[in-house]
Amino acid sequence: MKKYVLFLFVGISLLSCSNDDNSKQSEFIGKTFDYLFFETEQECIDAQPDPNFFINCHQEISIDDNENAEIMLTDIMYSVKYTIDNNELIIHSNSRTFEFQNDIIFEIINTSSLKLKSNNTIWNERIGNTLWN
């Protein structure tokens, strides 16, 4: 009888646990975060070295769903996998991400700001369809 009670207790305990592993991810789905190299669009335009060559004015990360994101560090947009763990958003490197060989780790400041841990830059949520407001 004790075995049945123990089995019943364990079974109920396992079934009553909720799986909210993706709750943090859902707060970020559909958001894009930018790190701007220039405060204004005009400063970016003025910094271009040659009319036939354009340097990036920002870096960005867009969260697509619970595990997929896109990140641009230079001029290449990479499709990547990510996880959120211990208040960190972790972009996982892979064989196709030759710009970065190690995972990229952001500290989650709040749902609208991330801090890139390697250089302490703040990446803010893009509001609207433009980089500069």
What does the secondary structure layout of this molecule look like, with pairings?
Layout: H1 2-16, H2 23-26, E1 32-36, H3 41-46, E2 58-63, E3 68-72, E4 77-85, E5 88-92, E6 104-110, E7 113-116, E8 121-125
Antiparallel strand pairs: 1-2, 1-8, 2-3, 3-4, 4-5, 5-6, 6-7, 7-8
Supply the key terms:
133 residues, alpha+beta, Lipocalin
How would you describe this protein?
The protein has 133 residues and is an alpha+beta fold. It has a single domain, classed as Lipocalin. It is built from three helices and eight strands; from the N terminus they run ααβαβββββββ. It has helices at residues 2-16, 23-26, 41-46; strands at 32-36, 58-63, 68-72, 77-85, 88-92, 104-110, 113-116, 121-125. An eight-stranded antiparallel barrel has the order 1-2-3-4-5-6-7-8. β6 and β7 (113-116) form a beta hairpin. It starts with a helix and ends in an 8-residue tail after the last strand. The relative contact order is 0.16. Mean pLDDT is 84; it is low at 4-21.
